[in-house]
Amino acid sequence: MxxxxxxxxxxxxTSEMFRxxxxxxxxxxxxxxxxxxxxxxxxxxxxxxxxxxxIRACSVRLGLSGISASHAHERGRRFAQEVLACVLRDEAxxxxxxxKDQGDRVVVVSGGLDVYLSHWCRYHELELxxxxxxxxxxxxxxxxxxxxxxxxEKSRRVMATYDLGTYPVIYAYGDTQEDLDLLRxxxxxYYRWQEVT
Length: 197
Known about the structure:
Elements: E1 3-6, H1 18-25, H2 28-46, H3 52-64, H4 69-82, H5 90-101, E2 105-113, H6 114-124, E3 127-131, E4 133-136, E5 139-144, H7 152-161, E6 170-174, H8 180-184, E7 188-191, E8 194-196
Parallel strand pairs: 1-2, 1-6, 2-3, 6-7
Antiparallel strand pairs: 4-5, 7-8
Helix pairs in contact: 2-3, 4-6
């Protein structure tokens, strides 16, 4: 059995899905207010003065704090069915199928949120390591439960979860700078669907 590690946004999907999920899950009035409050941060992000981790944390805080966990998971389930199903790359699904046919262990390793990725991965019978939202008293706090699963955190979590020495070949697939640490722990690395050394 080999190990296959797949980034989600932009690798399995045709685009990044964090913002579309917030637009799908956050109530309209809160979304408008959040957009106004986030405007200076978004401008800083576009000028490369604000890191992506920070803007994601701010978006989660403004958009999801106080929402019931059950409501967030239900919106995540619908998002997985209604939206994610329309933005999947055929080549990614074929490669996942190929790995499963070989008997490989297939894991999605993503900075995306557990409230929708858990549903999508369960449907496709894939394992998941991702960013998790903190829940207290049955409601989202607007904070992450632990670190965002991006950059070095991706490889750290994989190494904490799996004994890499037991896999003859480790494959990794990614498409951005935030995936490079994940690719480094693999024997066969694919960046934007091209194998790299």
